[in-house]
Design goal:
By secondary structure, the chain is of the alpha/beta class. It contains 7 helices and 7 strands; from the N terminus they run E-E-H-E-H-E-E-H-H-H-E-E-H-H.
């Protein structure tokens, strides 16, 4: 046991040793540091608990929505659409989750192709309307009925009006950075 006081000249293995404060090392002072670390952890824990409670209340009141993965292309296979230009229904067994969307593939080979190069087969803007994103700063899910194939990529729009706006000047909207690639 180490205590503050005067140094005792002859100490056996079972006897206590006494030191002056000037002779104590930093390791002897660690217990007092641990108390402050414990307090800090307690405050961090309380803060995290409070933030969780606030988040739960906000979700319950509808101020914050937890994003869910949406089914892109209404379950049609994006690989078949790019490679064969055909609307082939996907199979629920071959699902690839990519950037907030779920893509159904027609088979195992299509799923391997999608996983090997998801940028090629994924819908631009993760299935959200590119025109609404750039013009109105709104994230609106596009519909398969209002889709367009441009320069090897698939674009979806929420309505016929946005599809026509894109069709008039596609390069303007194709150059815009996708939301998930932007630096904040």
């Amino acid at each position: 046991m180490i205590r503050q006081g005067t140094q005792h000249a002859s100490c056996g293995p079972d006897e206590e040793m006494w030191f002056h404060r000037s002779q104590t090392s930093r390791t002897d002072q660690q217990p007092s540091r641990r108390k402050s670390t414990g307090r800090r952890r307690w405050y961090q824990y309380r803060l995290a608990t409070l933030l969780c409670a606030v988040t739960i209340v906000c979700v319950a009141l509808g101020y914050y929505r937890i994003p869910k993965r949406h089914l892109v292309l209404d379950g049609y296979c994006p690989v078949a659409l790019i490679e064969k230009q055909a609307w082939v229904p996907g199979d629920g067994q071959y699902v690839v989750a990519y950037r907030g969307g779920k893509y159904w593939c027609a088979g195992a080979s299509e799923m391997r192709l999608f996983r090997a190069n998801p940028e090629r087969y994924a819908v631009v803007f993760d299935g959200f309307d590119a025109v609404a994103e750039s013009r109105d700063r709104k994230r609106v899910l596009g519909k398969r009925e209002h889709g367009l194939y441009f320069e090897g990529r698939i674009y979806l729009f929420c309505g016929e009006e946005n599809l026509q706006v894109f069709f008039r000047s596609p390069r303007k909207y194709a150059k815009i950075n996708e939301p998930s690639r932007r630096t904040r």
